[in-house]
Fold this sequence. Notes:
The protein is an all-alpha fold. It folds into 2 domains: 3-191, Cytochrome c-like domain (Cytochrome Bc1 Complex, Chain D, domain 2), CATH 1.10.760.10; 196-339, Orthogonal Bundle (Cytochrome Bc1 Complex, Chain D, domain 2), CATH 1.10.760. It is 32% helix and 3% strand. The protein has 15 helices and 4 strands. The strands form 2 sheets. Strands 1-2 form a two-stranded antiparallel sheet. It starts with a helix and ends in a 7-residue tail after the last helix. Bound molecules: heme C (2 copies). One heme C (HEC) is lined by residues 66, 71, 77, 79, 81-83, 97, 99, 105, 107, 109-110, 112, 115, 121-123, 133-134, 137-138, 143-144, 183, 187.
Amino acid sequence: MKNFFRYCAIGILMVSSCKVDPSIDPELLPHTHSHDLSIPEGLPDMIIPTNNPLTEEGIALGRKLFYDPILSKDGTISCASCHRQSFAFSDTSIQFSLGIDGLEGTRNAMPLFNLGYQKKFFWDGGAASLEDQVIAPIQNPVEMHETLSGVLSKLQSHPEYPALFQKAFASSQITTTMLMKAIAQFERTMISGNSKFDQYLRGQATLSQQEQLGMNLYMQEDKGDCFHCHTLGSTFSDFEFRNNGLDAVPVDPGRYLVTLNESDRGKFKTPSLRNIEVTAPYMHDGRFSTLQEVLNHYNSGFIVNELTDPNLAILSKNRMTQQEMDAIIAFLKTLTDYEFLTNPRFSKP
Ligand code: HEC
Ligand code: HEC
């Protein structure tokens, strides 16, 4: 039974869910209720870390914290200030999010969904787990600019939080680890897999002629050829780090900052293309404001040098007509998951 915590038993081709026996690990979590993670058909199993099983109490606490500006120094910014549900938890159409004191960062806020399928976080993969990721924005001077001890003491003296931590982690003595675990639990439940395209794969919707053409061009090696990096279906990315030819000399060194490996210069995490219609602007620095600009980049703007990913470097310029680019954009719009964008389970509690 213990394995159910680790590997939720999910059939790839059937809608099913991950049931966990609440009697598991009684010492770790005596009074919690395990959470039933429903994974839509088409998405893979999610591996939940054994030291942070999903519980109703932990998820509810993580959700409250995600929306609470108490995590920022002056109480004005929450995670949700930059990660908004109607934009698939990316920011609005602004290029760089504003942190406290109105300061700007240098990267475009990433959308948040299907995070439980990924191994590295941030555009450069600088955080090795969802738990680790949480403390970065809290401490970042241009984001929430708070110290961990500052956050912990505010939470500890809050009228509700000590009891909520007690419920979730069997201790009212709040620690950074508990804070990281709660938010990571909530983030793992943010699953998006019910777009028109998913419904089409399940035989519940039909694609228009243009959308169908766009899907074919997405797969066609002498046309879009998007699928080598943004895999078709499932998570719509393999999340590998690549240089997609944005700059001859990368302004932001990207993955290089983490590995200090010269060949990683200008590499960024390949993003999922799910919900791409609502997450503009695009790329790590938000340089493109429309999908047409993105298609222009892949059709003719991309730079080829020794840093460019070989999957892109071999493609010829101007290989797509405007009509073909329109079709790919129409196909990309079938990846919008309106249920996810409005699901009350992820909204402000
Ligand atoms: C001021 C805006 C801002 C705030 C506040 C903020 N974020 Fe972010 N978030 C960003 C930006 C920008 C990035 C991309 C950063 C990078 O790659 O360097 C990001 C990236 C992430 C990622 C990585 C996603 C991925 O696919 O790798 C996660 C997870 C995340 N944020 C969660 C949170 C949580 C949880 C909080 C609250 C504790 C939070 N963010 C607060 C702007 C913000
Ligand atoms: C060689 C691999 C590769 C190929 C081929 C490729 N992409 Fe990308 N794509 C990436 C990487 C890496 C990024 C992130 C780059 C960055 O932000 O600096 C990205 C970013 C994007 C973004 C912006 C996502 C966001 O959240 O900002 C869109 C949209 C996109 N690609 C669409 C496409 C389409 C459509 C095609 C086919 C015409 C395509 N890509 C082909 C690797 C690739």
